[in-house]
Structure formats: C-alpha cells, structure tokens
Design brief:
Elements lengths: L13 E3 L9 E5 L21 E6 H6 L3 E5 H6 L2 E2 L7 H13 L6 H28 L8 H29 L9 E6 L4 E6 L35 H6 L5 H22 L2 H4 L4 H5 L5 H7 L5 H30 L4 E4 L3
Parallel strand pairs: 4-8, 5-7
Antiparallel strand pairs: 1-2, 2-3, 3-4, 6-7
Helix pairs in contact: 4-5, 4-11, 5-7, 10-11
Keywords: Membrane, Transmembrane, Transmembrane helix
Protein name: Integral membrane protein
C-alpha cells in the first residue's frame, strides 16, 4: 500500500492546552506515527498512509473513542474504503440503531449515559408535577405538589449521585497511553484497501465484556488493565490534578452531592419542617433556585416551576446525546484537501 502523495491532507500536527498548567486536552498527529493497529502478527495489516490523522481528545479517551481525520480525495485516489463521516445522515442512522439494540452494561461510559438519561426522565416528571398544576389547575390531584414533586426530586437526585460516582470511576480508569483503534487491511487480492475499526487491538477498558470491575485479559497488543476505585496520592499529584477530565468529573460529583442533599430535603416529611433559611439553601437548577427566593410572587413561582421543567428537559436531551456518544467508539471526519 503506497502512502500516497496526491491529495495529502493539509492537517497540521497540533496540540491544544486551554489551561496552561493542565495536561493537553486535544492533539492531532499523523496516524502513521501511531501504532498501525490490527492484532500482532497480522500480515494483512498495511502501512498507514500520511493522509490519515489521529485526533486525540481527553473526553474521547475517557469514553474509549478513537477519532480519525481522513483526506477524502487521497482515500479515493489510493483505493481505500472507509466508513462514512460521523456527521452524515448515513452514519447517524446506525448510531440510533445501536442505541436500541446494544446494551454494553460492562462499559462504564454507557452506564453513565443510561443513568443520567434515567435521572433526567425522573426530573422531567418532577417538572410536570411542579408546573402543570400552576398552568392548568384543573389537572392537579391530591399530593401532586408535595409528595409528587418531593419523591421524584429525591429519586432523581439519588440517580444523579450514582451517575456522578460512575463518572469519577470513568475518569480514574482512563487509558494513559495512546490507543489508535483502527487498522488498514488489504482486501480482495490487493484491488483495494479497507480502513476499519479494530476492537481487538483496542486497549481501553471499555473493550472488556465479561465484567465491569474485572481485570483485562492479556491479549496481543494490549497491556494488563486493572480496575481502579481511586488513584493513589502520587497519581493525584502527578497526573489527575492536572487532567481536566478528572477535575470536571470531580466538580460534577461535588455538585451532584449538594444536589442530592437538596433532593433529600424535598421529601414531604422533611420539607414541611424546614425553616425558611434552610429551604433557601436548596438552589437546585440555577434559574429555579434564583427564582425560589421570590416565590411569594405568583409570577416568580410560575417561572421557577417552568424553569425546573425546561432545565430537566435540556438535561434529558444532553444525556441522550451522551448515550449516543458512548456507543460511537470510532468517529470519522472527512476533509476535502488537495
């Protein structure tokens, strides 16, 4: 397989470090400089050309994703078949089908997405209980504004707390070394070449299919992987405190913990006994909490209830996108450069 000199993608090798004292969050390097992919001893694996680029992002690394950038013209000139670009309709449909047909429960990134989606559904229900009686008083039933909102708030906040714990586990079990995740194979007696995902050559913990907390088996091209519940103090100082993904997950966990406390106090038997200063400490969603200070006003109370519903719906949309993302392990971006 020739590396190809026509239509070489003018993609610069670059790194992005938005915060100077933290690790690089994104980098793009020629795939030819990464591991070729494919299992060890695979004679059919071809040399990677210089018009395929590997794009690393810290978030993709935590999610076990392997993004590549391909020069579309160079691929055509060199007879290389490749998957459709991720942002096309033809690639989106299989992604939606994966959401309905794949259930990789041993993938912590999938579990995080599913749990946050479930929690968001509970909060949308909570938003209905809070907003509908104000919008249409005739729909209100006994206990809707107290038991209905209180119980769903507690359940939803508890689910978010569980999701945040898994998010922390995802962050501390990221892949430390590079994992290309693609292979270029000869096909049909050298008539063309096929660029394909290479799950067997992937060293991310997401590829383990026999247990969420298990140790990965030693396979060709893989390192032994041991699940970590929490990094050592040395790892925290030298790596994780400089890793933006870990810091973001830690912030999410702290916020979810505070949110869970407010959800706990929303239970009817507790909320009815709170003093005014104590009830004002539960901010929840920002808009809902801010408007809660003026709940003596009917307009502010209505806006607060509505913001709870809108915020929950927005969180549900984001969680569904995260669900889609957790199953899309091999994103493809095509560029037209000559």
């Amino acid at each position: 397989m020739a590396s190809g000199t026509k239509g070489v993608a003018r993609q610069e090798e670059r790194q992005i470090r938005p915060v100077p004292f933290l690790h690089t969050t994104s980098r793009q390097t020629p795939a030819a400089e990464a591991e070729p992919g494919g299992t060890a001893g695979d004679a059919e694996t071809a040399t990677l050309p210089n018009w395929i680029w590997r794009r690393y992002r810290s978030r993709d690394n935590r999610k076990g994703r392997h993004t590549i950038v391909i020069s579309q013209q160079s691929a055509a000139n060199n007879g290389v078949s490749h998957p459709h670009a991720t942002d096309t309709f033809r690639a989106t449909l299989p992604g939606l089908w994966r959401m309905a047909s794949m259930f990789p429960v041993f993938d912590v990134s999938y579990d995080v997405a599913i749990i946050f989606t479930l929690g968001s559904v509970i909060w949308v229900i909570n938003g209905f209980f809070a907003w509908l009686p104000v919008q249409w008083p005739s729909t209100e039933f006994d206990g809707e504004a107290t038991a209905g909102t209180g119980i769903t708030a507690f359940v939803g906040a508890t689910i978010f707390e569980l999701g945040s714990v898994l998010l922390m586990l995802e962050a501390v079990n990221e892949k430390r070394t590079d994992c290309f995740g693609w292979a270029l194979e000869e096909a049909i007696e050298d008539q063309y070449h096929l660029l394909r995902p290479d799950p067997k050559g992937c060293a991310h913990h997401h590829s383990v299919r026999h247990g969420l907390l298990s140790t990965g088996e030693s396979e060709a091209g893989k390192e032994d992987r041991t699940w970590e519940w929490w990094p050592t103090w040395y790892e925290l100082k030298t790596h994780y405190f400089r890793e933006i993904g870990f810091l973001a997950s830690l912030s999410q966990f702290i916020g979810a913990s505070v949110f869970w406390i407010s959800g706990f106090t929303a239970l009817p038997s507790i909320n009815s006994h709170l003093s005014i200063p104590a009830s004002n400490g539960a901010l929840g969603f920002t808009a809902c909490g801010a408007l809660g200070f003026a709940n003596s006003s009917d307009a502010a109370a209505y806006a607060s209830d509505l913001s709870t519903f809108i915020g929950s719906l927005a969180f549900l949309i984001g969680s569904a996108i995260q669900w889609y993302e957790s199953l899309d392990k091999y994103p493809v971006r095509l560029v037209d450069e000559t």
